[in-house]
Amino acid sequence: MRDRLARCLLRASVLSVAAFLILIGINIFEQSTGRLLGKPLSTAVLSEASLPLILVQIPVFNEPAMVADCLRSAAALDWPRDRLHIQLLDDSTDETTVIANAVVRELHAQGYLISHLHRMDRRGYKAGALAAGLAQSDAPFVAVLDAISGRLRIGCGQWFPL
Q1: What is the pLDDT of residues 26-49, one digit of tens each?
Q2: Cβ(151)–Cβ(69) under 8 Å?
Q3: How far is CA 112 from the centre of its chain?
Q4: CA-to-CA distance for 142 and 121, rounded, in angstroms?
Q5: Which pLDDT score, from 0 to 100, does residue 88 have?
Q6: SS3 150
Q7: Is the CB of residue 135 less than 8 Å from the CB of residue 48?
Q8: Residue 162 clears pLDDT 50, i.e. is over it
Q9: CATH numbers and ranges of domains, the chain
């Protein structure tokens, strides 16, 4: 019985290695000749009207040096303004709130869907702020931009085919 199991495992291993080597060979062929052996899958293209609403949450606590840059970074995402909701989740007790209010007003005047949720009770800390923000949105997709991480470096077009 053990001998049979060992032979079965050996055959499975040999077949796996052979399949892997075949895939590497196909990849090398395609890279060197520029021809594809298989038919590439077509990409579904969504119209702008059918793009989903995306919620970008930015939780902050006493981060005056970062808040304006984070808000502008979220607003610069490559996504239609009417399909992008930015939430600043502010638990700050310093001048961060004043700075954030000015930038939120500026972005709102430019047509962005942006809200500034300022909590006086920090219950749950960052997780509590995120939960409070989620309770006020029905967006099917959520991205969280932490103020410490700085700029958002990915465009939403990389999440969804445009």
Answers
A1: 888 888 888 777 777 777 777 777
A2: yes
A3: 19
A4: 23
A5: 93
A6: coil
A7: no
A8: no
A9: 1-40 (no CATH), 48-158 (3.90.550.10)
Please tell me the pTM assigned to this model: 0.66
Alpha-carbon distance of 107 to 85, in angstroms, equals 11
Q: What residue has token string 């032979």?
A: 7
What DSSP designation does 47 have? -
Contact 152, 145 (CB under 8 A): yes
CA 26 to chain centre: 32
Half-sphere exposure of 86 (CA within 13 A, CB side): 29
Look at phi and psi of residue 64 and say left if phi exceeds 0, alpha if psi is from -120 to 50, else beta.
alpha
Predicted pLDDT of residue 147: 66
Which residue matches tokens 């445009």?
162
More confident residue, 160 or 91: 91
Cα-Cα end-to-end distance for the chain = 56
Averaged pLDDT score across all residues of the chain? 84
